[in-house]
Write a structure and sequence with these properties.
Strand content: 15-25%
Strand order of the largest sheet: 2-8-7-6-5-3-4
Radius of gyration: 21 Å
Helix content: 25-40%
Number of helices: 14
Shape: globular
Distance between the termini: 53 Å
Number of strands: 13
Structural class: alpha/beta
Order of helices and strands: HHEHHEHEHEHEHEHEEHHHEEHEEEH
Bound molecules: pyridoxal-5'-phosphate
């Protein structure tokens, strides 16, 4: 080869995304395909955000305003926090990546997380040459935060906890997060990824952010990709200790949140009807799917998110259910890449999509 690739890159197992609708439509010659694989919003893009993107299409030749101040102010208002704590990124993926690069020195520092967990944390750490320490989740998919704290040492810079968790949907009580923050060694920050937090039944009881806690070693990650219906726009945000937010703005590529993403984000925050309807449809759909899959003999894990994780009845392989659904034009998420080949993850869809899914599964699991 005429070039050299760092060993961290040549040996990398990349992020494994959900399959796309076009891919499956072509492969199986289907007229219509439904996708319940990537935890996108079942109601689509908020109407006010669609309008904003159309209205601002003519501004696309301009660079965005440095630091996206209008969006930052709107997010700060939404969460009742000081705007100096708010950062935005090209998806929360960008914020996760940049935090690792800002905080961890390769060969010296480490990050700690659970196994399985959202794979961006270990993948971006490995790309940076940063050690990843992992502790298995419990057999019932709850998280033992004491075990995570025990992995951390004076070289730990970040401890990642996802709540509700991906892929299980498990919600960690806020009180346990407070205890973890107190138990971490000096220099280690607790990163609570709250990508799905607004889908829980009781956000106040589950979220330190919603409860108004402002601990010096805790940061929060949120996203416009799920309840705000903007996954394809790529917009995420973080609520960080103010001094860390200041460093973030210095280290970030200047214009990673583009003009249309900023306008779409502002409009999505304003579209409170769409958001309320999203939360209602997801909570009702989650209850219906949980009951429906249990009725088919599946083990369904309790979820506070806009997806559920399930294990098919004995004698039915998860891979066969996944393939059978694909042939019927329904894409769900196999969890092999999470190390859970016997499990499936299903995003909550519209009532019609949920019913189609259950009908197809009733055939496949009979
Ligand atoms: C979907 C998801 C995100 C959001 O990622 P974006 O880059 O904002 O689209 C973050 N964390 C977890 C655990 C997720 O599942």
């Amino acid at each position: 080869m005429s070039f050299h690739v760092r060993p961290e890159i040549s040996g990398l197992t990349p992020y494994s995304p959900g399959l796309s609708i076009d891919e499956i439509r072509e492969r199986f010659g289907l007229a219509s395909v439904i996708k319940l694989a990537s935890n996108e919003n079942p109601l689509g893009t908020p109407p006010l955000a669609q309008e904003a993107v159309r209205r601002h299409a003519g501004d696309a030749f301009r660079y965005p305003q440095s630091g996206n101040p209008r969006l930052v102010r709107a997010i700060a208002r939404h969460h009742h926090v000081d705007e100096r704590r708010v950062v935005v990124g090209n998806g929360s993926d960008e914020i996760i990546d940049l935090l690792i690069r800002m905080l961890a020195q390769p060969g010296r520092n480490n990050i700690v997380c659970f196994d399985p967990c959202f794979s961006i944390y270990p993948i971006q750490s490995r790309i940076c040459g940063v050690e990843v320490r992992r502790v298995p989740v419990e057999a019932d998919f709850s998280l033992n935060l004491g075990k995570l704290a025990a992995l951390a040492d004076e070289n730990t810079v970040l401890a990642f906890v996802t709540s509700p968790d991906n892929p299980s949907g498990y919600v960690t009580p806020a009180q346990e997060l407070r205890a973890l923050a107190a138990a971490l060694p000096a220099g280690a920050l607790l990163a609570v990824d709250e990508a799905y937090m607004d889908f829980t039944e009781d956000e106040q009881a589950a979220s330190l952010l919603a409860a108004g806690d402002d601990l010096p070693n805790v940061l929060f990650l949120r996203t416009f990709s799920k309840s705000f219906g903007l996954a394809g726009i790529r917009l995420g945000y973080g609520i960080l200790p103010a001094a860390l937010a200041d460093y973030y703005w210095r280290a970030r590529l200047p214009f990673s949140v583009n003009v249309l993403a900023e306008e779409a984000g502002l409009a999505a925050l304003a579209d409170t009807d769409f958001r309320a309807e999203t939360l209602r449809v997801v909570r009702e759909g989650r209850a219906a799917l949980t009951e429906g899959f249990r009725g088919l003999g599946c083990t369904v894990h309790p979820s506070g998110a806009n997806f559920i994780m399930l294990e098919p009845p004995a004698g039915k392989a998860a891979a066969d259910i996944f393939e059978g659904l694909l042939r019927r034009g329904i894409i769900i998420r196999p969890l092999k890449s999470y190390g859970l080949p016997h499990m499936l993850r299903v995003s909550i869809g519209t009532p019609e999509e949920n019913a189609m899914l259950l009908r197809a599964c009733a055939e496949l699991m009979a």
